[in-house]
Write a structure and sequence with these properties.
Length: 418
């Protein structure tokens, strides 16, 4: 059950049962002065108990909360040109985005495996309001560094000097201290496990988050994450005290990936900031909705965004290759509800399990229905600043894979409450 905040004004709205009214019915038979005196005392006692017991607990409204999402209204679109040069780097592969309210700027990371430019994130300024999405400006680029201070290597460099080949998929601004947390999918063929790391704003390494042995790659056996299908979703709770981490697809031991005939289960893990697992849930991925004209089609979870203690936004992205070899993308945004979901943290494998209740899901938006010429490979989503009417905003970003048939696309939306 959702706990709604109680204001002091609402504390005086009471409902009475017959049993609760019985003392007053009995007292009404008393002489009038005695009745009035006893009635006043009973009312004062009830009001005091209700005030202290029912309202004081909820009087602290300092914890940030988000309203649930009813629907979305498109405000507009901005794009960044293909292979746009910026301060010695090439902009592309933007697969994660987050808003920093302290500076009114945005961070967007590239999933470039240090092949085009070193692993990095960009600082953006966006200008949108209820009338539209008016401007996008790239302000800075920051190179991310490993624990030894070196830049992340590409595959060739890693073979010579070691280090982790990056495949960054999500980035978040820490609500408590403004540092940056980012996830990487690892590299299964090279025995590199996925990871979540924390960096200072200058890109320097701060720490690695302990995600657990379940997510370590084991190339010699069908266990752990599949290659390029692991840590795609990352989100802080609104108060910054906990962290959510989402898999793009099932672990090997959790069953097959989605097909045209069936969906699949991906693990969503809720952590404390020290890495302690609070709970873990199964998220039910859709089956692939469109048959490929070419050789390939997939569907997976590409990002998570916490709404409140029990609800998250889940971005599902399906890429379908046409007969011309070009990929078309089908994006859906769901609201995930973990209120009645089974905690699967103690289950080493989901395949064959018969009694798992996945998180609930409700479709908020099928991006195929938008009046846009193209919807690309949307992989990142973030809350933005509140709009003039008090509604939340959401911004999505696409990963163009440095591909001429794709675009780097940013979409801004107004969140319409239910």
């Amino acid at each position: 059950m959702k706990n709604f905040p109680v204001s002091r004004e609402s504390c005086f709205v009471m409902r009475w049962t017959v049993a609760e009214l019985q003392p007053f019915l009995f007292m009404r038979s008393l002489p009038l002065p005695v009745f009035l005196m006893r009635t006043r005392l009973v009312w004062l006692a009830c009001l005091l108990a209700f005030w202290l017991g029912g309202c004081a607990v909820n009087s602290d409204q300092s914890t940030p909360t988000k309203s649930l999402v009813g629907s979305l209204r498109l405000l507009g679109e901005q794009r960044i040109a293909l292979n746009a040069p910026f301060m010695g780097t090439v902009i592309g592969g933007l697969s994660g985005i987050d808003y920093d309210p302290r500076s009114d700027t945005w961070v967007a990371e590239s999933d470039d495996r240090s092949e085009v430019s070193p692993a990095r994130f960009y600082t953006l300024k966006l200008r949108y309001d209820l009338q539209g999405f008016h401007a996008l400006q790239v302000d800075a680029v920051t190179l991310l560094r490993q624990a030894d201070g070196s830049l992340y290597p590409d595959a060739r460099e890693a073979a010579v000097r070691g280090g982790d080949i990056p495949d960054l998929e999500s980035i978040r601004v820490d609500p408590l201290d403004g540092s940056l947390w980012y996830s990487s999918e690892g590299n299964r063929p090279k025995k590199m496990s996925p990871f979540v790391r924390r960096a200072d704003r200058d890109g320097s390494y701060l720490s690695q988050f302990p995600t657990g042995t379940m997510f370590q790659v084991r190339p010699d056996q069908p266990l752990g994450p599949r290659d390029n299908l692991s840590f795609e979703g990352l989100s802080f709770s609104p108060d910054g005290q906990t962290l959510w981490l989402g898999m793009e697809a099932p672990l090997y031991q959790d069953g097959e990936v989605p097909t045209l005939e069936h969906g699949a289960l991906a693990r969503i893990t809720h952590y404390r900031r020290d890495g302690t697992i609070i709970a873990q849930y199964a998220y039910s991925l859709d089956a692939i909705a469109h048959a490929p004209g070419g050789r390939y089609a997939d569907n997976g979870l590409s990002e998570l965004l916490a709404v409140d203690a029990h609800h998250l936004l889940a971005l599902e992205r399906s890429g379908v290759q046409g007969s011309d070899g070009v990929f078309r993308f089908h994006i859906r945004l769901y609201e995930m509800d973990i209120s009645n979901a089974t905690d699967i943290a103690a289950m080493p494998a989901l395949a064959g399990q018969c009694c798992i209740r996945p998180a609930g899901k409700r479709l908020i938006l099928d991006f195929d229905t938008l009046p846009l010429a193209k919807i690309d490979n949307l992989e990142g989503v973030s809350w933005g600043p509140r709009l003039a009417n008090g509604h939340d905003s959401l911004v999505f970003i696409s990963d163009n894979n440095f591909n001429a048939s794709q675009v780097t696309q940013l979409l801004a939306f107004e969140v319409i409450p239910p």
